[in-house]
Amino acid sequence: MTATTVTSVGETREPLRPARIGQAIMFVGLFTYFTLPMVAVFLYSIATRWTANILPDGYTLDWWVSAFTDQAVIGAFGSTLVLATLTAVLDIAVVVPAAYWSRVRNPRIRTIVELSAAIPFALPYLVIGFGLLQFSGIVAPALQGTFPLLVVGHAAIAFPFLYWAVDGAMAAAGIERLSEAAEACGGSPAQIVRRVVLPNIKPGVVTGGLLAFATSFGEFAMVQTIARGVYTVPIWSAEAIRSYSGESGAFNRLAAVTMVNFIVLFALSAAVVYFNRGQTVRLLPGARNIEQREQG
Amino acid sequence: MSGVDLIGVTKVFGHVRALDDVNLQIASGEMVALLGPSGCGKTTLLRSVAGLERPTSGRILIGGQDVTNVPTRDRPIGMVFQSYALFPNLTVRQNIAFPLEVRHRPAAEVKARVDQLLELVRLVPQADRYPNQVSGGQAQRCALGRALAPSPAVLLLDEPLSALDALVRTRLRDEIRRVQQLVKTTAIYVTHDQSEAMAIADRVAVMNHGRIEQVARPPELYESPATHFSATFVGSRNALELPVVNGRVVLGGAFDVPAPAGATDRAVAFFRPEDVEVTSTGAGHPATLEVKIFLGSTTRLHLLTEVDGRQARFYADMPSREALAYEPGAKLAVRIDPADVKTFPVE
User: pTM value?
Assistant: First the structure.
């Protein structure tokens, strides 16, 4: 991108070349494709009526007010936030030590960790949810259908994002060498983790935590399978569509909630990009291997 | 008081004997270089002294204390790594303070000691910079300061100059030596560069296949390598494989020396380029000058000769002024003083 900007400065007076026009059309098309649905949802959430015309007949904030004074909506947002936060915290607590251990002490467990990090992509969440139900039925029947089990389920499907982010940060920081150096300096394991490891993988932990949070925030299938009693924003949205019986404003309120949901996830994505300084592509599995191969 | 004793140290990784019964005594205040090609076990040995590797068998003593089973953080060591391994989140000053802070030394003492070390490694102007804001040489000096901060009994250096470019390398090498002699700490210096090892160390231990082949002072090692491997690895040497005839190894009129013990058929003769006497008229073995390489004060002649019915090449070094007399293609005569020829059985 930088290179294009630099050359275009000197070429501002040149006639537009076909390639440049093609690029512009592509960009506008892509931008429209992504934003138009969101604009439509937003307009719908503030429309009095929207029937025959291309734009709504009139505008109002009533739907937003009624949606966010509705106890069900507030409750859904509350439990979604708690669920997503606990998921991220649980994942950080489990994955960071595991990633550290697999790098510094026992590289052999890497295979196991990386294999399990692929499972959430190979299996539908529904299947994982049922598996977890079966398993909890054997080991802890009391947990079935409860919030804690849901946190565990979400932690299980969200952890690969955190693992890749943290593992990448550890590779970038050369955490094995830093640990050894800190050990040779006389540091105890606790001192090494607190003063050397964590400060140097912070961007990875923050990024991974945000991704785990976002995964849990928008997840629907597993909440449905594992904990029917838990009422999250996606569940509320699904119910709003399912139970629609012609009352006015139901879909407008849904649009308002969807909009907020989108803003939250968009803000999280923006934060992820920010914390990775535009190198988000490195979070993809295998990206590091390709990079190393290119350097070598 | 703080020498290092390695007694029968052996380390086995799977089927590989990375260290094979290594015995070495290092006197207090002495710097010993572990020299050898990659995979010879020199780094494993250093890491064993640091406690980063546990030997399969054998004992390691520091200052007479058995530390074989002591964890790294409780050993009286300081370590410098090839990759610097400075903490990127801490400044130069904080990096040097780290070993003192983890030992819970009082703040005033830490400050005084760090100031002293910054002075010692000449990093006072860079004290508040972060590792990514200093040059490679400065980073490694910071690592040296950090390693020395807790006044360790032993300083361990793992190829500390390998990541640096040539000019910085020699300067930092001399700097490390100066600092080590100033603080009088015992030191173990791992390198694969023979000139580095000979320049910096009191003694050099040549390692190969997990064993120490020879331990000697640099001049002794240079003059009289004890094994075939030492001879190949140390000094830039000519090696010619020659037949053993009547218990003697002969290169035409160049030299005639007794065959080494154990050699029945063929032997390798080692001799240094600077020991080859070249004349255009005198007696000796005939050789043809192929190429002249100007190296500054000396010039290296690439010579082609016939040995045992086959062509062989070797080098001769001479002062550049004398080399002016010879042009490529010249027919020359070479001689080597028998005292300068080392022979070993062909392995």
Answer: 0.78
Of B114, B108, B112, nearest in space to B126 by CA: B114
Q: For residues B158 and B46, is the Cβ–Cβ distance under 8 A?
A: yes
The reply to whether ipTM tops 0.95 is no
Residues in chain A: 296
In chain B, residues under CATH classification 2.40.50.100 are: 237-345
- Kindly report the number of other CB atoms within 10 A of residue A214's CB atom: 23
CATH of domain A71-295: 1.10.3720.10
Nearest by CB to A184, which of B72, B83, B89?
B72
* Contact between A186 and B74 using a beta-carbon 8 Å cutoff: yes
Question: Can you point out the beta strands (E) in B166-254?
Answer: 186-191, 203-208, 211-216, 238-245, 248-251
pLDDT digits (tens, 9 = 90+) for A204-226: 899 899 999 999 998 998 998 88
Residue at B289: amino acid letter = L
User: What residues contact B191, with CB distance under 8 A and at least 6 apart?
Assistant: B33, B34, B35, B42, B159, B161, B162, B197
Q: With CB atoms and an 8 Å threshold, state whether A177 touches B150.
A: no
Q: Which residues in chain B are contacts of A187 at CB distance < 8 A?
A: 73, 98-99, 102
| CATH class of the domain whose range is B237-345 | mainly beta
Closest CA to B198 of B230, B223, B222, B177: B222
Q: Which CATH class is domain B4-228?
A: alpha beta
Distance (Å, rounded) from C-alpha B58 to C-alpha B54? Answer: 10
Check CB contact under 8 Å for B85 and A178. Answer: yes
Cβ of residue A18 closer than 8 Å to a chain B Cβ: no
What are the domain boundaries of chain A? 23-60, 71-295
